Amino acid sequence: MKLKLPHNLRLQLKKVEDFFDKNYPNTKLYIVGGAVRDMIMQRPVCDLDIECFGISPKSFDEAMGRLGAKGVGRSFFVYKYGDIDISLPRTERKTAKGHRGFTVYVTKSTKEASRRRDFTMNALMYDLENETVIDHWGGLEDIEKRVIRVVDPKSFVEDSLRVLRAMQFSARLKFRVEKKSRDLMCRMNLDDISEERIFWEFEKMFKAPFLHYGLFTMIDLCIAKKILKLEIRREHFFVLAIRMIRARRVENQKMREYYFLYILTCTLHLDKEKTCDKIHTPNIYKKILKSQKCVPKKFTDRFLGALALRFCLRDWLGVYADKAVSRAKKLGIYSHRFDPGVRSEDLIKEGYSGKELGLELRKRVLNKIKKHFSKEKS
Hints:
378 residues, single chain
């Protein structure tokens, strides 16, 4: 499985393995978490989490210093070496509110160390010495079935952020949530999640390839109701899902992360700014969404032409709409803005000024649009 890792990550991993083989030969190393899942699913892996068994906390801190790893969570026994997080195997107990309100204990058991994981697909471990996968919770079967299943219900409910993680994993992996896990998550309160963490998990969904899966899970786990204060009816879900599926085909990937909120707010006629506020987006989301026109029920070439005064249609979030791309390309406004050839300085020379200048400029631009896009096709 290590051969599936990118070259730079394999080199870093070899240095870590060689270091422990030479200096701490009794230590056992396991790759844990999402990297194991992604290697099994043949998905790209950008970083690794490694847990070190058979070494005391004191010796582990000493080892990390010798290796040159930097402590990023010393109270959690976590260090970073390049693109690898190295830590001691641990269990956690909720002792305070919030995402970090946990007391951590070192454990010697692989099963207990994996018990703290959120979902079975993320609780897999890869034994680097024996090159075998350790699966205490049925994660391999759940990956095969494309199912998101809670590892330990008792510890799961201590961290409500995990409900949002289920949503973004569903959108990223095209997985569904298993029924008992779904029922458990629906009963959980989401009020204690920080604003920053709420957006981080939504952002991962926004960038995911299967937005309609994220949408379904957002509704199914009551996230839409609890965070967005939305009750989305069945018929609206299907309209939203179809539009999100179509949006996957758009060429301009730099706009991908804005499609979910654009389609949601336009379809349900929601206030864009208030919706952004509910999930605590950066201001760029508000700015982008405010500049975008919703897809009308029947859009004309003149509508597209007027829109192309602002930006080329390649940057319009509504370009997923039926025949929008082909029509924009035929009109020459897909990759280029429409230039009506009307300049305010020319109107000033004609004697226009103040309010009259603005009105005349608008009038002539509209006339140019009507003339240029006179042969409309509905």
